[in-house]
Write a structure and sequence with these properties.
The chain has helices at 2-8, 35-70, 82-87, 90-123, 129-141, 144-155, 170-193, 199-206, 211-222, 224-239, 243-248, 256-265, 270-299, 319-344, 355-361, 373-403, 409-427, 430-440, 457-479, 483-491, 496-524, 528-533, 541-550, 556-579; strands spanning 19-22, 28-31, 73-74, 77-78. Helix content is 68%, strand content 2%. It has 24 helices and 4 strands. It has a two-stranded antiparallel sheet. The chain has a two-stranded antiparallel sheet with strand order 3-4. Belongs to the binding-protein-dependent transport system permease family.
């Protein structure tokens, strides 16, 4: 009897890699795997952790830290003279102020417009809602250079809204920054709102509160964690925006990102650019800290339902939200893109023509194109395919490691640090990454060749940009798997490898397809890091668009409009196809509805 009582107190869940079998009188007895199986499991998880870590160290941490060190050394000796010189310049503080102002205004406006979109797409049921889910994803993955060109075509010279006099103003710049980020707010807030328990709001209505008052006093405070997370993400994306600010802001409205690019390319001031990148690190770090504190403070009193409540049919009371969402989709998203397409088909006299597209096939010598745009399209697709494959492979390994729940406190802390390291590329600008790769990859790790002379670094940089988003698509799916399924497989004698092959990987299937499509679209349109790394004869399509738009040769601007249409169409088609792979109508299925794990 004492032995049976002792055995009955053993944990219901076996140790990692172990299985259970029935003992006397129904007691559970842990049957550990053979030592060889346990050793292989440890080796497998070690490799799954070490491979992404090595990739991040060589191609992310080392370049970024080397860039920062450039600002504190002179001919190999410590020298901090560049710090007071850069931060003592009035333009530096003006650029920092512009960065904070642009990102703050864009985040506020994106939240105001994104909340009605979240309500319509996640709380209401109507025909065509699935299609709208997919269409709302397209603005987020459209290349920033396409967004900038679209707003320039709308408000710039010869544009239909040129009469408003808003070209090269803060207003147009903020609108363009909001363009992709309404989708971020809608996804982040909507996935949280869909699982929010509505009983408190219903109780307030029963007690006599009106619909608006109940929403302001009950629902809105409950949405605070999601709103804080969404606002922080938008602020983060906008404060590190490059293509939009470069095209629409010019030198007057430069942010830290474009100023780093200007110091590097125009003035070859590597030390100044490195010191200025410190300001960007501080902005990103402060944003993440404030976001985390606001989210934790708001999550304490929030109750989420495991199953999302049924959506309701739209009623008269929903018309204001539908109206705001419709205006946002029409005026903010559709009009700039439609203007871009129409202006790419117009000639200088106001007639219709396809001459701008014909130029892309046989470019004249005066245009800044290394080869026909068809060559740039093919090169961009090949590079994006390699980058997407790298991001998916590493993302799957990282998601598998982070989805496990270690019992040891030390392992849990290490897992948290690993998660934070993986997310760092999301907060470090692509320009900083590209600049860092440029100064470190001449003979990496003592190898006898210069990686900068080939296009190898371009897919590497693009994979780093896409990697955090791939992880955030896959991780909620793995965390949403019921541990009892894995436990049952282990009970039947399955090894850890068999559990992965028969449970984890099959459930990842469609979400992995979505992650692959998402990373492919994001890599195809990457502009910041790629602009540093392109070599003569290896011009990608986003870089070609940027150079055509900024060139003064006759016909260059029209050719840039046409190239932007081609790039935007490719990206949109890829994303819409990938969006068809969604599980349960939302990214990553029900697991993706957990707050804070959408991106």
């Amino acid at each position: 009897m004492p032995r049976e009582r002792s055995e009955s107190r053993e944990p219901a869940t076996p140790p990692s890699g172990g299985t259970t079998e029935s003992g006397p009188r129904g007691a559970k007895r842990v049957r550990r795997p053979a030592s060889g199986t346990g050793a292989w499991a440890v080796a497998g998880w070690t490799l799954a952790t070490a491979l992404p870590l090595a990739f991040l160290f060589v191609f992310f941490l080392w370049p970024v830290l080397s860039l920062v060190a450039t600002g504190f050394t002179d001919d190999g000796r410590p020298d901090f003279g560049a710090v007071p010189e850069v931060f003592g310049a009035p333009r530096t503080w003006r650029v920092i102020g512009q960065t904070l102002l642009q990102a703050g205004l864009a985040a506020a406006l994106a939240v105001v417009l994104g909340v009605p979109a979240a309500y319509v797409l996640y709380k209401l049921e109507f025909p065509g809602r699935t299609l709208l889910h997919g269409l709302m994803t397209v603005p987020f993955v459209l290349p920033t250079v396409v967004v900038g060109v679209a707003f320039s075509a709308l408000f710039g010279p010869a544009g239909p809204l040129e009469w408003m006099g808003l070209d090269r103003t803060l207003t147009v710049l903020v609108l363009a920054l909001v363009f992709p980020n309404v989708a971020v707010v809608a996804r982040t807030v909507g996935s949280f709102w869909a699982r929010l328990d509505d009983s408190s709001a219903m109780a307030a209505r029963v007690m006599g509160a009106g619909r608006i008052r109940a929403w302001l006093t009950v629902t809105l405070p409950a949405l605070a964690p999601a709103l804080a997370s969404a606002a922080a993400l938008v602020f983060l994306f906008c404060s590190t925006s490059f293509g939009i600010v470069l095209i629409l802001g010019g030198r007057e409205f430069s942010n830290v990102e474009t100023e780093i690019y200007r110091l590097t390319v125009q003035f070859l001031d590597l030390r100044g650019a490195a010191v200025l990148s410190l300001a960007q690190f501080v902005i990103v770090g402060a944003t993440l800290v404030v976001s985390a504190r606001l989210r934790r403070a708001g999550e304490r009193a929030v109750e989420l339902r495991e199953d999302a409540p049924r959506e309701k049919r739209p009623g008269l009371a929903d018309l204001p939200a539908i109206f705001v969402f419709s205006l946002t989709a029409l005026l903010l998203h559709a009009v700039p893109l439609l203007t871009l397409v129409l202006r790419s088909l117009r000639d200088g006299g106001g007639g219709w023509t396809i001459a701008h597209y014909a130029v892309l096939v046989r470019p004249p010598a005066e245009l800044p194109l290394d080869a026909p745009v068809a060559h740039a399209i093919g090169l961009s697709i090949r590079i994006a395919a390699v980058a997407a494959a790298i991001a998916l492979l590493l993302g799957m390994l990282i998601a598998l490691v982070l989805s496990r729940k270690p019992r040891a406190p030390g392992l849990r802390r290490a897992q948290g640090l690993f998660d934070g390291l993986v997310m760092l590329p999301l907060g470090v600008s692509a320009v900083t990454l590209g600049f860092g790769l440029l100064i470190t990859m001449h003979r990496p790790l003592g190898l006898g060749f210069d990686l900068r002379t080939s296009a190898v670094l371009i897919p590497v940089a693009q994979a780093l940009v896409a990697l955090p988003l791939v992880v955030r698509i896959l991780l909620p799916v793995l965390r949403g798997i019921d541990e009892r399924i894995r436990f049952a497989a282990a009970t039947l004698g399955a090894t850890p490898v068999t559990v992965l092959a028969t449970i984890d990987l099959p459930l990842l299937g469609r979400s992995a397809g979505l992650a692959l499509g998402f990373s492919f679209a994001a890599s195809l349109g990457e502009f910041g890091a790629t602009s540093f790394l392109v070599r003569p004869g290896a011009q990608t399509l986003p870089v070609a668009v940027g150079e055509l738009i900024g060139h003064q040769a006759p016909g260059s601007y029209g050719a840039g409009l046409a190239a932007a249409v081609v790039l935007g169409t490719l990206t949109a088609v890829i994303m819409l196809v990938a969006e068809r792979l969604r599980v349960d109508g939302r990214w990553g299925g029900r697991g993706a509805q957990r707050q804070g794990e959408l991106f």
